[in-house]
Design a protein that fits this description.
By secondary structure, this protein is of the alpha+beta class. The chain has helices spanning 25-41, 44-49, 53-58, 61-72; strands at residues 15-17, 78-91, 94-105, 109-117, 122-127.
């Protein structure tokens, strides 16, 4: 199991709350699936460009590629998407959204979790 740096999902004082009005569930799901599609295609630079600046500083493109290889590099070809779950979070009075999407590969399943700030920048990425 490989954990990519998670800025949002591991902080103290995180509270799961209803999704803030600034977010649209369908847009969050679509963006998250696009990120996973890019990861599957090896387009790590495109994923990196979705990151908020602070995440870009701590999670370079090379680490994204390495984490993907370690997590599901031997999982075979992508088959299909499964369930998607969208939750809100509030950290220090800031609104965030967390999207979990399950992906099925030939030999394994992977859960991708992506956190977004109110400006739809990625603030956390986790896969297991």
């Amino acid at each position: 199991m490989v954990i990519m740096l998670v800025v949002l999902m591991t902080g103290c004082g995180n509270t799961t709350v209803p999704l803030a009005e600034v977010f649209q569930q369908e847009e969050l799901e679509t963006r998250t699936i696009q990120i996973v599609d890019w990861l599957n295609a090896g387009e790590y630079e495109a994923v990196y460009e979705t990151f908020r600046e602070d995440l870009q500083q701590v999670l370079p493109v090379e680490e994204i590629e390495s984490a993907c290889a370690e997590t599901y590099g031997n999982g075979g070809a992508f088959v299909q998407y499964g369930n998607t779950v969208v939750n809100g979070q509030k950290i220090e009075e800031e609104d965030y959204a967390v999207v979990m999407v399950k992906a099925q590969y030939e030999k394994q399943n992977v859960t991708f979790q992506v956190g977004y700030d109110a400006e739809m920048k990625v603030v956390g990425l986790y896969m297991k």
